[in-house]
Design a protein that fits this description.
The chain is mostly helical. The chain is built from 5 helices and 3 strands. A hairpin with a 6-residue loop joins strand 1 and strand 2.
C-alpha cells in the first residue's frame, strides 16, 4: 500500500501518483507500538483467539450435539430444546457481563457457554447455581 503525503489517502502499489493531488506516493509503514514480548503475545492472542475462545467453541459444539441427540432420539420437542438453549444463553449473559467488566473476557465466554450447557442438560436447577458460582468466581479472581 502506498500513501499520499499531502491528503493521506491510501492506494495500491500499482498507483504511482495521487489522482487528486498529483503528488508522488510514498510507501506506507505499519506502526509498531512496542516490540516487547508481552505486546507480541497480545497481538497473537488477539488475532488467533485465546484459550477461552477454544473452550467456549468446544462447549457450544457439545450443546449442539446434545440438542440433536435429545430431539432425534429421546422425543424432546424442538421448541423445548430451543427454549432451554435460549434461556441458558440469556442467563449466561449475566456472568459474561460481570466477567467482562472485571477485564476477563475469556472467563466471560466460558461462563456463557457453561451456563447454556447447564440449562440445556438440567434446566434452571443447574443453570442458576452455575450462574451464581460464575459471578462469584468473576468477582473474586
Amino acid at each position: 500500500m502506498r500513501k499520499c503525503p499531502s491528503c493521506g489517502r491510501s492506494y495500491s502499489d500499482m498507483v504511482e501518483q495521487c489522482p487528486s493531488c498529483n503528488v508522488a506516493l510514498s510507501e506506507a509503514r505499519e506502526q509498531v507500538i512496542s516490540d516487547s514480548p508481552k505486546s507480541a503475545t497480545n497481538r497473537q492472542t488477539a488475532s488467533t483467539g485465546g484459550s477461552g475462545d477454544k473452550i467456549a467453541k468446544i462447549i457450544y459444539n457439545v450443546v449442539a450435539v446434545i440438542a440433536v441427540v435429545l430431539v432425534a432420539f429421546l422425543d424432546v420437542s424442538m421448541a423445548t430444546m430451543l427454549g432451554a438453549i435460549g434461556m441458558g444463553f440469556v442467563l449466561g449473559l449475566i456472568p459474561k457481563k460481570v466477567a467482562e467488566s472485571k477485564g476477563k473476557q475469556e472467563l466471560g465466554k466460558i461462563a456463557l457457554a457453561v451456563t447454556t450447557l447447564a440449562n440445556e442438560l438440567f434446566g434452571l436447577y443447574a443453570s442458576i447455581p452455575t450462574l451464581v458460582i460464575l459471578i462469584i468466581v468473576s468477582i473474586v479472581t
